[in-house]
C-alpha cells in the first residue's frame, strides 16, 4: 500500500494493518487532525505562502514566519505551526519544497528552521 498525506497537518500517514479495511477512506493521521480540519486561516496561510513566493525571484526562499506575519499581524507567533502545516500541504500539492540549509527535506520529519521555495 502507498503512504498518504494527512489532509490537516500534511505529514505522511504510513499504511498500517489496523487501517487495512478502510485505507481508501483514511484522510487524517490522528484524532486531533480529524477535529481540526483546515479552516479559513489555514487557507489564508497557504495563499500567503504562494503569493510571497510569487514575488520572489526564481529559486529564492521565504520563512514560514513571513506568511504568519502577513496573516496574523501582531499575533503571528500563534500561527507558526499552522504556517508549517500549510507549507506541508503545499508540498503534498506539488506547489513548493521545504528546505534546510539549501537541501530539500521530507516535510514529515523536518525539525528546526525551514525555508520554503517554489518547485
What does this structure look like?
There is one protein chain. The chain is α+β, with helices and mostly antiparallel strands and 119 residues long. The protein has two domains: 4-35, no CATH class; 40-118, Arc Repressor Mutant, subunit A, CATH 1.10.10.10. It contains four helices and five strands, in the order ββααααβββ. It has helices spanning 31-35, 40-54, 64-72, 80-92, and strands at 4-5, 12-13, 96-100, 103-104, 115-118. Strands 4-3-5 form a three-stranded antiparallel β-sheet. The longest helix has 15 residues, at 40-54. The protein starts with a strand and ends with a strand. 26% of the residues are buried. The model has no long low-confidence stretch (mean pLDDT 93).
Provide tags for this entry.
about 35% helix; globular; alpha+beta; three-stranded antiparallel β-sheet; single chain; about 120 residues; Arc Repressor Mutant, subunit A; two-stranded antiparallel ribbon
- Summed up, the domain count is 2
Separate helix tally: 4
Shape designation: globular
**Proportion of beta-strand residues:** 5-15%
N-to-C order of helices and strands: EEHHHHEEE
Strand line-up of the largest beta sheet = 4-3-5
* Terminal Cα span: 26 Å
| Sheet with most strands | 3 strands, antiparallel
Helix content: 25-40%
Amino acid at each position: 500500500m502507498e503512504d498518504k498525506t494527512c489532509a490537516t497537518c500534511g505529514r505522511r500517514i504510513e499504511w498500517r494493518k489496523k487501517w487495512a479495511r478502510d485505507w481508501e477512506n483514511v484522510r487524517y493521521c490522528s484524532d486531533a487532525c480529524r477535529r481540526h480540519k483546515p479552516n479559513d486561516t489555514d487557507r489564508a496561510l497557504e495563499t500567503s505562502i504562494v503569493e510571497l513566493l510569487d514575488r520572489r525571484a526564481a529559486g529564492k526562499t521565504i520563512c514560514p514566519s513571513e506568511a504568519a506575519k502577513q496573516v496574523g499581524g501582531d499575533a503571528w507567533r500563534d500561527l507558526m505551526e499552522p504556517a508549517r502545516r500549510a507549507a506541508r500541504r503545499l508540498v503534498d500539492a506539488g506547489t513548493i519544497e521545504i528546505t534546510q540549509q539549501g537541501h530539500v527535506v521530507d516535510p514529515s520529519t523536518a525539525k528546526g528552521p525551514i525555508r520554503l521555495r517554489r518547485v
